[in-house]
Amino acid sequence: MKNILILFVCFVFAGKVKAAADTTRTYSVKLAKADIKNGNIKFLLRGGIVSSVKKGQEIFEKKYKIKYSDFGCVMPSGLSIEDYNKTVAIYMDKIFGIGWRVDVRRDVQGI
C-alpha cells in the first residue's frame, strides 16, 4: 500500500512539472510573438556575471533589425529562452531566409 501511495504522489508531481513546462513554453512563445508584433525583435541570451558583447554583433543587429538581450546571470522565472528564440528564428527565416543563421551569434540557444 505504501508503494502505491508513493507511486501515486510521484505521478501527480510529474504531471505538475509537465504542466509547468507547458505553461513556460506557451508563455515564451506568446511573449516572442507579441515582441515581434510590437517591433521589439530580439534574441535572448544567457550570460555570466558580466554581459558579453561579441565583435561584429552590432553589424548583425543593424542588418537584420534585431537586438541581443543578455540576462547576465539572473534569469527570469517562467521564461524559456529556447522556446522564445525558436519563435524569433522562425520569424527571421520567413523574413530573411536562412542566410541570417550564418551571421548570428553562436551562443543564441534554441535556434
Automatic annotation (TrEMBL):
Keyword Signal annotated: yes
Keyword Signal: yes
Signal sequence, renumbered to the chain: 1-19
UniProtKB keywords: Signal
Name of the protein described by the UniProt record: Uncharacterized protein
